[in-house]
């Protein structure tokens, strides 16, 4: 969105608008909207959890019998006697200070409970995204533009990777590599070896999706005039792929980075459960069983913030990857139209694809990314330039 | 004026597009909307065959197995695959094949219902967002962004936290995950219809607009939405099995694939078959629905069979 705004600014104000000011304004608007979305997530979560059946005091007290005094004390501690709106604004006020409330039965603040568990989860997610990136880039580079008998087995593997439920893949890996072959520890080991199987299970879906998108992007880019130019300069095929084509193929892949972030978080919840690993997943599922609503809201909000921040970073990454999207771009004769196309596609289509495809497919993800307004397939925006815009100015 | 094939590629992708109406018509028209460019790939044929098999199993499970899926037999617990029990038995001595066959109906129904619910609500939101004023449109856009900001599975868990576990509530949670995608595609389609040359031509010819919209534009707009919904069924089945596995979906003793996996987990260090076979069926189901959906999508976009 930020880039679209910049583009609009350029179109409307022309030279009158300084590009730094335009960028500043665009960034401010983008961040403002992100805050608005987060506020929405807070409100929806808070409202939803207050619509639930049953009394909150009973949930906090649980099975143990307590005296009326204790009961009254709990009600006043958690401000349960106050009207909904007051509780809501209280919650918002605390949130602004980084306070997510007090867990019903963990005996600690939600912030500390999440803080304790977030590291193992991030460790798992980082390992998974690393695997997914390395695997997908390797597969895409090795198979793009190759004959069908080379591509087909990988295509099949990718479709399976997208379709297979992560938790079942985890069970499968456990059965084969832990219980049959004894190569990896089965359950709960918080060691590097214990990280392998969960990371593989978690990496499968994003990795397979990325591989599909990257290969599509690479194959599209290989038809571009600038690739022909590069080849005519005598650059080897491998260098063409890695140095020129890959950067272009990364654009649509980055568009789904937000979805990948969400998929990893959601996937981690289940994978941790299968492997009995510590982390946000076990915390969440446990909180669900004990109906620990502040803790559930806390996890949901942390996840939403994560998603929103990742999407902000994606917006910031576009101009870095494609110089034509920078406000001071001078390369393409029609940078404005191109830039707007790409960004609107990115902001409207990207989130669409992942929801529809959460586990199923890159089928929608790939076309969603590659077919922006106008019905062509220009990602990155088509320009008649025969020089690789990424290489421009670097000799 | 008959149904000229519109350019659906971009609209499936969820974006509204500036329609000039001429760009894609020759290409798509030359090939015809459903005509065959290449022979259908065997994978696609197999996928449709498997899906047909699933539908039959969901309607008449008795055709595939005569065994009662809930008949426990303490003498036959955790028997490996072999004669008598083709896929083995579970911890209660129940026949796994029979449970998989009988589990087809609930498993498919969860996916179908979730996708249908998301389609109806998503379409309503999409139409409202497209037809409403700027404020209405901005509101729905914000709402969809809020829903999208919560990762799919956590969204379903939130719904279950509020409403409690069970089949119905999982379906509500799953449909909420699918909803934003559907709403956006419908909005794009409506915007496209509004700007379409068909409508302009009808206006110029003085034809009743309502008739043009209903008879020519809505059918064209429906196809991409229905295909998205098809793929959504696959997503919902995969995610639904995840919820069941966490014990939040259909409750025992229902024979449902995810629930079967959930009950197998205590034993899967000693017996692999209860944990493996239902998972294979889930994966194949999601896979074949995806392949079928992609095939239909490619056909619709005039890209030919993939």
From TrEMBL, chain A:
Give the region (Disordered) as residue ranges.
Answer: 345-395
Q: How does it sit in the membrane?
A: Multi-pass membrane protein
- Major localization class: membrane
Q: Where is the ABC transmembrane type-1 domain?
A: 118-314
Which InterPro entries does the protein's record reference? MetI-like (IPR000515), MetI-like_sf (IPR035906)
- Residue intervals passing through the bilayer: 31-51, 124-144, 156-183, 195-214, 253-275, 295-314
Descriptive protein name: Putative ABC-type dipeptide/oligopeptide transport system, permease component
Automatic annotation (TrEMBL), chain B:
Instruction: Tell me the membrane topology, using the record's own terms.
Output: Multi-pass membrane protein
Query: Which GO terms fall under biological process for this protein?
Result: transmembrane transport
Q: Which residue ranges run through the membrane?
A: 43-63, 108-130, 142-163, 169-186, 225-250, 270-296
Cellular component terms per the entry's GO annotation: plasma membrane
Query: For this UniProt entry, what is the primary localization, expressed as one broad class?
Result: membrane
Q: Where is this region: Disordered?
A: 1-35
Keyword field: Cell membrane, Membrane, Transmembrane, Transmembrane helix, Transport
Compartments reported by the entry: Cell membrane
Family statement drawn from the similarity comment of this UniProt entry = Belongs to the binding-protein-dependent transport system permease family.
Protein name listed in UniProt: ABC-type dipeptide/oligopeptide/nickel transport system, permease component
Organism of this sequence: Frankia canadensis
């Amino acid at each position: 969105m930020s880039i679209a705004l910049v583009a609009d600014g350029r179109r409307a104000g022309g030279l009158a608008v300084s590009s730094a000011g335009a960028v500043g304004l665009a960034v401010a608007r983008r961040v403002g909207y992100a805050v608005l979305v987060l506020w929405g997530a807070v409100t929806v979560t808070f409202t939803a959890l207050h619509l639930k059946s049953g009394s909150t005091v009973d949930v906090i007290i649980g099975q143990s019998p307590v005296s009326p005094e204790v009961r009254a004390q709990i009600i006043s501690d958690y401000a349960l006697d106050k009207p909904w709106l007051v509780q809501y604004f209280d919650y918002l006020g605390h949130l602004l200070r980084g306070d997510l409330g007090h867990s019903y039965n963990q005996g600690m603040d939600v912030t500390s409970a999440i803080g304790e568990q977030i590291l193992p989860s991030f460790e798992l997610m980082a390992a998974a995204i690393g695997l997914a990136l390395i695997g997908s880039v390797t597969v895409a580079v090795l198979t793009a533009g190759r004959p069908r008998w080379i591509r087909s087995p990988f295509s099949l593997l990718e479709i399976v990777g997208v379709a297979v439920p992560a938790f079942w893949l985890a069970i499968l890996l456990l059965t084969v590599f832990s219980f049959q072959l004894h190569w990896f520890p089965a359950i709960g080991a918080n060691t590097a070896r214990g990280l392998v199987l969960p990371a593989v299970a978690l990496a499968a879906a994003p990795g397979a999706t990325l591989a599909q998108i990257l290969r599509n992007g690479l194959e599209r880019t290989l038809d571009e005039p600038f690739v022909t130019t590069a080849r005519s300069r005598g650059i080897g095929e491998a260098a063409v792929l890695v140095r020129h084509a890959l950067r272009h193929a990364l654009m649509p892949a980055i568009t789904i980075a937000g979805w990948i972030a969400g998929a990893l978080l959601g996937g981690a919840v289940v994978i941790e459960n299968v492997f009995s690993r510590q982390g946000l997943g076990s915390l969440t599922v446990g909180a669900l069983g004990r109906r620990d609503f502040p803790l559930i809201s806390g996890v949901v909000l942390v996840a939403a913030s994560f998603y929103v921040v990742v999407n902000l970073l994606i917006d910031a990454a576009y101009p870095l990857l494609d110089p034509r999207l920078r406000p001071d771009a001078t390369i393409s004769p029609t940078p404005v139209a191109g830039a707007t196309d790409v960004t609107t596609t990115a902001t409207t289509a990207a989130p669409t694809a992942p929801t529809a495809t959460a586990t199923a497919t890159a089928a929608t993800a790939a076309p969603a990314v590659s077919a922006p307004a106008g019905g062509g397939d220009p990602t990155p925006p088509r320009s008649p330039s025969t020089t690789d815009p990424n290489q421009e100015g670097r000799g | 004026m008959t149904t000229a094939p519109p350019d659906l590629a971009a609209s499936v992708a969820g974006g509204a597009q500036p329609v000039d109406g001429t760009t894609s018509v020759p290409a798509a028209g030359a090939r015809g909307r459903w005509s065959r460019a290449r022979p259908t790939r065997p994978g696609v044929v197999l996928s449709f065959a498997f899906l047909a098999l699933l539908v039959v199993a969901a309607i008449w499970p008795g055709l595939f197995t005569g065994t009662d899926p809930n008949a426990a037999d303490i003498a036959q617990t955790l028997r490996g695959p072999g004669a008598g029990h083709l896929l083995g038995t579970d911890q209660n001595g129940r026949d796994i094949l029979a449970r998989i066959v009988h589990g087809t109906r609930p498993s498919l129904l969860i996916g179908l219902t979730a996708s249908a619910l998301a389609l109806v609500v998503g379409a309503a939101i999409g139409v409202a967002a497209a037809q409403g004023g700027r404020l209405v449109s901005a509101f729905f856009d914000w709402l969809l962004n809020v829903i999208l900001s919560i990762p799919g599975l956590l969204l379903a868990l939130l719904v279950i936290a509020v409403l409690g576990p069970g089949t119905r509530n999982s379906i509500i949670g799953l449909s909420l995950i699918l909803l934003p995608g559907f709403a956006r595609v419908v909005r794009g389609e409506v915007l496209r219809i509004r700007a379409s040359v068909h409508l302009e031509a009808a206006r110029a010819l003085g034809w009743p607009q309502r008739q043009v919209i209903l008879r020519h534009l809505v059918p064209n707009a429906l196809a991409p939405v229905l295909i998205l919904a098809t793929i959504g069924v696959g997503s919902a089945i995969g995610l639904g099995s995840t919820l069941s596995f966490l014990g939040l979906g259909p409750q025992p003793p229902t024979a449902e694939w995810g629930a079967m996996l959930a009950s197998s987990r205590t034993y899967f260090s000693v017996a692999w078959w209860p944990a493996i076979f239902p998972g294979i069926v889930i994966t194949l189901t999601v896979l074949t629905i995806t392949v079928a959906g992609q095939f239909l999508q490619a056909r619709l976009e005039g890209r030919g069979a993939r």
